């Protein structure tokens, strides 16, 4: 809260009689008054007053009221002060001198000899002004605060709209936007641009066998692994259910293939702690590069997707790179999952490094194609 005027007045008057008179009249009216005999000694108190009122005599030795008024306004301009309502007390009653006083920054003036009723009425006007200014300032601060809160909220909503709730990675919508931006940069700069489409193998079986809670843990752990392999965290994301996309600017398909293969191997090496059991999983990766033939980002994604399906078809847990339109080749190793986890009773899970078991599992679920 901004402090409103606390009825403090600084009186500056070199004539002792007038000074004492002012002090008594204002104090009797309920104001808190500090009185000074010259402009110089009033400077520091004015400087530290915050918001308040000054009644200063025009004619004083050294720093007169006019000069004090100018100095006060200068200090205010440097934002060293709050609002100061400045009343100039003057024997000068000529219009030109009154204008001079107002132009020096005085808010009001009172000609000597002054009338007590007029003095108090003008002080009340000043008090009203100070309160209004304080209210206005407070309202400004409130509006700024509200705007800042709105900005935070808008930012949060934007984040939510762009983020996958489970993995905290950018979501599909966000990925498309960023891929398009990266695409434009690649076009403009003539840089390479590659992407990796990655899908968790047989994820449906993990979900069906162990339940969605375990499935979610697996998704999160793989997402972490994907994040660790990102060159730029803003260019990766959860593309779909168990599908992730990594975009690599200034990278050829061959180099992206090496990165994808490292990621694939790291996922295959994970021991995912799901509480009652440890699960192992694997991913199939498809890699494609923006070429003269890929006119739009969608085509790049389609090529990467086709490679990912080729990896699935050839036994999963491997990386395929698009080498020409519609043609791919497997790179790196083909991983074998030998211990997929501690199965619950009755579950049929491939284990013991036997490819045969894995085949059994695969063939049992041969109708669920994209796993
Ligand atoms: Mg004087």
Q: Would you give an account of this structure?
A:
With 371 residues, the protein is α/β, with parallel strands linked by helices. It has 2 domains: 8-140, Rossmann fold (3-Layer(aba) Sandwich); 172-360, Alpha-Beta Plaits, CATH 3.30.70.270. The protein is built from 11 helices and 13 strands. The chain has helices at 16-28, 39-48, 65-77, 95-103, 116-162, 172-189, 203-210, 212-228, 253-268, 297-313, 355-364, and strands spanning 8-12, 32-36, 52-57, 84-90, 108-111, 193-200, 236-238, 243-249, 272-273, 278-279, 283-289, 319-324, 327-331. The strands form 3 sheets. A 6-stranded mixed β-sheet has the order 7-8-6-11-12-13, sandwiched between helices. A 5-stranded parallel β-sheet has the order 2-1-3-4-5, with helices on both faces. The chain has a two-stranded antiparallel ribbon with strand order 9-10. β1 (8-12), α1 and β2 (32-36) form a beta-alpha-beta unit. The chain is rod-shaped, with a radius of gyration of 39 Å. The two termini are 60 Å apart. The model is unreliable at 339-369 (pLDDT under 50).
